[in-house]
Every structure is written in C-alpha cells, then in structure tokens.
Write a structure and sequence with these properties.
This protein has 2 helices and 29 strands. The chain is an all-beta fold. A 4-stranded antiparallel sheet has the order 1-29-28-27, with no helix packed on it. It has a 4-stranded antiparallel sheet with strand order 2-3-4-5. The chain has a 4-stranded antiparallel sheet with strand order 6-7-8-9, with no helix packed on it. The chain is globular. The two termini are 16 Å apart. Keywords: Repeat, WD repeat.
Length: 400
C-alpha cells in the first residue's frame, strides 16, 4: 500500500514583513514564540496569532546571523542568545515579572523594554555564524569564520533563586581548517551502554565547516572536550547539520544529517562496537591527554536524500514528531522527504517551487502549532525564512 499523500499548503505569513534579509527563525522549546534574526534585530513572533510579540534591538553593532533559546531555566526568565557579524554573542533575558499571555494576545502593541541585553560573550575574531545549546542548557557552543568553536558554561544560581549572568569559557576547539559554518548539540536521550557516561559525557556536538568536513565532539570524564570523529569524503562545503530528534530502538545513537555543497544531504550513523564493556570501564578515563587524540569513533553513511535542489542546500530540519525531513536552499525550493520503514530509503514526498518567490530560502524549521486552526490538523508545521524578509508558515497535510 502506498504511503498517504503529503501536501505543503501556505498557512500564514508572519506580520509585519521585515523588509530586509532574514537569516533564521527559531521556535521556543515550549512556548508559542518564534525568534527571527534580521539586520541588527531579533523579532519575536507569536505562534498563536502569527504577529509580532516583541523585538530585541540595540545590542549588536552589525547584523545578527543566528539565535538560540536556552532550553531550561531554574526560574521563569526567558533567555535568548544571539550570534552577530560583530564577532560577539549576546545574552538577552525577558523580565520574569512580565505576564506572557497578555503580550502574545496583543501582538505588536507590546512594549519592548521587557527584553534586557544583559551580557556580551567576546572571544571570536570574526563573525559568529551559528550557536547551539546543550539539551540541559548548561553549555552553549558558538562557531565563527575564525575557524574556531567556543564552548561556554552557564554558571547559574544566585541569591533568592535568581539567576546570574555568569558564563565561563570551558573549551576553544580549533581543529577545523576553514570557517566553521554551523554547530548543533545532539538531543538528550538516554543512550545505550556505550554512551551512558562510562566513555563520555552525555553531551555530543557536531560542527560543519568550509574545510569540507563535519567533526563530532564529546566531553570526557575530566571535563575536556575533544574531536572523536571526522566525517568527510564527497561532502563539499558544509552548510548545515541536523540531529535526529526521535529516540531510536535498542538504545542506538541518533543519526546525523549533513548538507554539503557537493554531496547533497547524507545520513550518518555511529558504528557501534561489538560486545559490551565491563562495568566501570572508560575509554578516556586514566588515559593521558597526549594519547587521547588517537581514540576515535567511526561514523558511516547510511543514506542519501534524493537530489532535488539545483543549488546549495542551506538548511535541514528533521521532525521529532513525524520523522519527516525538510530542506531549503539557494534555488528557492522547499522539499519534504520521508524514510521508507522497510527499505530505509529516503523518498521525496512533497515539493514547493519558489517558496519565497524569486528569493533564496535561508532556513527551515519544524514548529509546533498553537493557532486556532490547528484543531483536528497536524500538530506541527514548517516555518521558512528568506532573503525577502518574509517568514512563512506551511501546513503539512498528510493523507487528505
């Protein structure tokens, strides 16, 4: 029996238009908020009304390229981090005394002083291209055109339960030979014995670079970060990396997708070692630092998405609900793929040409629906962000 058809239908255009190139839109992990970077500003939209909720301005001297919400917090403070062409990352917080329900309903009438630019993270020599939080929100990774990745730790905790803006650099990773375009922490699932903390810490980071490689990084038991694998061969310049967001059977590690200028989108899987370790065994524990560089894990290509795009693929989104994958790029296409459960082959299920008219589409993300029209429909939608300064929501209609 063939799979049910999938349609991509225009759902809404977020208002107002931004009238300048928009780089990325990032949904909050749980609240109906979407942060979009453009010019020197972040516009936060309501996912309930598809209208402006608030904006963040005045923190950066050049355009803001990327942003990330801190996943968790010990208080009700909302925290957003921005990466800018001015070579810094900025920490923004939303006044915990503010009531969220009212500004979301009111849309753009909300006053903007409730967002506070609280801290600047300095260290990169060139533009900050991408940033990502670890699942717990403890670590923040930033990457730059200066070929480096910085890992920062949020040292939370303060008097009367209030959070301090105390951040510390815990690692500077400089193994890439070209601009580091993108970084992404793996989602935080409980893994099999090989990755339950006896060999490495729970956090895993992937980075993609103009040096035509993807590197996988882990923290050892002594709190030191190191590269454990280099993914290369027919990839080309890496524009995006995306982790699988659904927990796998038998405790296997999440797969990783890479979008390269030459190799399209590839699906990588960690090659598991045969047998199990003895209780208490550790791959890096007790091994001198000078020897750790020789210890590696092997990732292998287990799938390739069909070639549909005619230009670079800028962004890949992997749904944690349906397992569907969406891509966008320089040709203006929005494409959705699905993996065949039996053959494990990926197939094109839907495509929209000119998703933003003649403009390039810089980013795509899956997003939970909060609007009234979501009743009886799919619980998630796609959001695309383009050079035209427009942010669009797309209904993903399955089986109708």
């Amino acid at each position: 029996m063939p799979p049910p058809p999938i349609q991509l239908l225009p759902l809404a255009t977020f208002t107002p238009d931004l009238y300048t190139r928009a780089w990325q839109s990032t949904p909050h992990p749980s609240l109906p908020l979407l942060a979009t970077t453009h010019d020197k500003t972040v516009t936060v939209f309501s996912l309930t009304t598809f209208s402006k909720h608030s904006s963040l301005t005045g923190g950066h001297s050049r355009s803001i390229r990327s942003c990330a919400w801190q996943p968790s917090s010990s208080s009700q403070t909302l925290r957003l981090v921005t990466g800018s062409f001015d070579s810094t990352a900025g920490i923004w917080t939303y006044n915990p005394a503010a009531t969220l329900e009212k500004p979301i309903g009111q849309g753009e009438e909300e006053e903007e002083e409730e967002w506070e630019f609280t801290l600047v993270l300095e260290g990169h020599e060139n533009e900050v291209k991408s940033l990502s939080f670890s699942p717990s929100g403890q670590y923040l990774a930033t990457c730059s055109r200066d070929k480096s990745i910085w890992i920062w730790e949020h040292l939370s905790g303060g008097e009367d339960g209030e959070e301090d803006e105390d951040w510390e650099t815990v690692a500077v990773l400089s193994e890439h030979d070209g601009d580091v375009k993108t970084v992404a922490f793996a989602p935080g699932f409980k893994q099999g014995k090989r990755h339950d903390g006896r060999r490495y810490g729970s956090d895993c980071l992937a980075s993609g670079s103009y040096d035509d490689t993807v590197r996988v990084w882990r923290e050892d038991q002594d709190g030191e970060w190191g590269c454990v694998s280099v993914l290369e061969g027919g990839i080309g310049t890496v524009w995006g990396v995306e982790w699988e967001k659904r927990e796998r059977e038998n405790g296997r590690y999440q797969r990783l997708m890479t979008a390269g200028a030459e190799g399209g989108v590839k699906v990588w899987e960690l090659k598991e070692e045969e047998g199990e370790e003895e209780e208490g065994d550790s791959r890096w524990g007790g091994v001198p630092n000078r020897m750790r560089q020789s210890l590696r894990e092997e990732w292998e290509v287990k799938g390739v998405l069909p070639r549909v795009h005619t230009r670079e693929i800028y962004s890949v989104g992997w749904s944690g609900e349906s397992g569907l994958v969406a891509t966008t790029g320089g040709d203006g296409l929005l494409v959705v793929y699905e993996e065949d459960e039996e053959t494990k082959e990926w197939k094109v299920r839907a495509k929209v040409e000119g998703a933003h008219g003649p403009y390039e589409v810089n980013h795509v993300t899956w997003c939970r629906r909060f609007d009234k029209g979501a009743e009886g429909r799919q619980e998630e939608m796609l959001v695309t962000t383009g050079d035209d300064g427009v942010v669009r929501a797309w209904e993903v209609r399955i089986g109708e």
